[in-house]
Structures are given as C-alpha cells and as structure tokens.
Amino acid sequence: MRIVVLQLLTLALFLLVVPAIVGSLFAFREKGGQGLIFRWVSGQFLLWAGFQAICVPLILRQQSFRWLVLLFLGYTAAMVLLAGALWMFRRKKARALPPQVPEGQARKARERGPGALLWLVFWGLLLFQLVQAVRLVYEDSDDAYYVAVASIAESSDTMFRVLPYTGGQTMLDARHGLAPFSVWMAFLARVSGMRPVLLAQTVLPVALIAMAYGIYYLFSVQLFPEKGGQQPLFLIFSEILVLFGNYSVYTTEVFLIGRSRQGKASLGSIVFPFVLLIALMLLKKLQEREKIPVGYYLLLAAAAAAGCLCSTMGAMLTCIMVGIVGLLTAVFYRKWKVMLLLAACCTPCILYGLLYLILE
C-alpha cells in the first residue's frame, strides 16, 4: 500500500505540480491567462513539446530508453528552474507597483449566489465521469499496440525496436515512431514505478479527462468573462454532450472517456481544443487592437509539436487549423504579419511532416 501511495504521489508531481510550475512561463495578464488551470494546461503542452523534440531524434538514432528518461528529466528540471527564476523576477517587479484594490464584498456575494449550485452540479458530473472512466475501463483493440509499445519500452529499454504483437525484432515504423505518445506513458511508468498497463487504464484517464475539462473551463472564461452562472452552465452542457456521446465508437466523446490513453484520442480531445482556445485569445486581442504577446505564438508552436507527439495526423490537421486562423486574420483584420507568425508556429508540423515523407 505504501508503494502505491508513493507511485501516485510521483505521478501527481509529474502530471499536476510540475506542469503548473512550468506553465507560469506563459502567464498572461488578461482574464483567463493567469489562473492555475491555464498554467497547468499550458505547462503540460510545453513539456509535451520538449518530449517530442528529445524523443524523436533518439528513436531515429536507435538510442536506449534510459537516455530519453535522463534527458527529459534534465529538460523538465531546466524548465522548472526557469519558471522559478521568472517567478522571482515578477514578484520583485510587483513590489514596486501600487497594491490593487480588492473587489467589493457585494460583488463577490453576487457572483457566488447564482452560480454556486451550478458549480456543484459540474463538479459532481465531473467526478462521476472520472470514476466511470476508471471503473468501466476496457481494453480497446488499439491497446494491443499502443499500451504494448509503452510496456516494451519500459521493460526492454528500447523504443520501437520490438514488434508488440509477436515480440520479434522489427524496423522502425515511421508512422508510430514520429508520434511517440506511448513512450511518454513509458516515461511516466519508469519514474513512478507503476506498470504501464495500470498507468494507462487508471491514472492517465483521470489526468487527461481533467485536462480536457480544464480547457473547456478556459473556453468558458473567454466566452463568458463575467462570473456568474454562464460558465458552469457551459461546462455542464459540455458534460452532458460527453455523457450522451456514445452513439458511435468514433465520436470525440468516446475517445475522451474511453480511449484518452491513446495519442490520437488526446489529439482530438485535448490538443485541437487547446489550439482553438489560443486562436480565440489571439483573435480577441486583434479585435481589441491590442499588442499580441510573443507567448501566444510560442504556446501555439508548443501545441503544434504536441499534436505531432500524439499522432502523425496531428502534423497535417494542426497546420490546417492554424492556417484557417491565419486566413481569418488576413481577411478580416488585414494583419499579414500575424499570418506569417502563425505560419511560423507550424514549423514543428512541417518538419515532422517532411521527416515522415523521407522515412516512408
């Protein structure tokens, strides 16, 4: 029992605490860009982007899984130290500014009143979904490959060199080797000591489903900036759509609840909504004729790299999404410079797409 508790604490550190610390690098001043949820989600995307940049070259060079673990731990430590240094700088700078006037008690009471019950309903439905995702977990046919890849990488210290179906030696499969989401699961299993199968079917669904709803919450902040009943109501309707989305095995709702441990499911349920969220925040800045911080573009580039980590389809689909946003900015706002910067954010997708064509 003590070992299980230690494993869960280690996973909580790498899936919750560390991303929240790293995400402080992207704390924006506007509404929705300073909260803990935004820092947690954006920090995870930065870690995913770093994992993709480290893992793929090691896979192509046929390096051992042990080297990946050491290098990514070093990258994670560097990001945490950088975030800590930036936090100290911001704190020192904030001391020189006049203190902010706290909100009135009447406004706080007004905000708590109508939305309190709705927030309770939202948290109750979210808890129900997290429990059901673990209690009713099933072995999807794709788990025979994706979860097996994670188990083999963790146990054999190799990456994509052993065929999951037979255990025999194989050549690199570019389609899966360039999208090593399963190897990220193997990394979590190695640092925590938990078996990859148990990790994929119990812990990861909870973390990834919560992350998806964190993105939905950030959408509600952008769409309904005034606190009240609109934000929890938006989230409750999102939960209802997920709960009753099992009309086909290929819906986004099924992928979120039942297959989030697979990279392509996280691509559709987490990466794409986050790209749309950053695009929405960026377009709102253009609408209000405000300067767009560089952090927006860096975070969008990290999301593009994370899409490549989840699936090779992410390279093409993410480029299409960002390209549509770029066309909108060019047509409606006449911001050609922004269009070029958005195109630069697709650099990871273009590089991994070209690499896929070369290897194939």
3D architecture notes:
- This protein is mainly α and 360 residues long.
- The chain has one domain.
- Helix content is 76%, strand content 0%.
- The protein contains 15 helices and no strands.
- α11 runs antiparallel to α12 (294-310).
- It is globular, with a radius of gyration of 21 Å.
- Mean pLDDT is 86; it is low at 101-107.
How would you describe this structure in keywords?
360 residues, mainly alpha
Outline:
With 360 residues, the protein is an all-alpha fold. The protein contains 15 helices and no strands.
Radius of gyration: 21 Å
Distance between the ends: 47 Å
Number of strands: 0
Helix percent reads: over 70%
How many structurally independent domains? 1
List the secondary-structure elements in sequence, H or E: HHHHHHHHHHHHHHH
Query: What is the number of helical segments per DSSP (H or I, 4+ residues)?
Result: 15
Q: Which secondary-structure class do the elements indicate?
A: mainly alpha
- Which outline best applies? globular
- What number is the mean pLDDT? 86
Largest sheet: none
> Beta-sheet strand percentage?
under 5%
| Low confidence ranges | 101-107
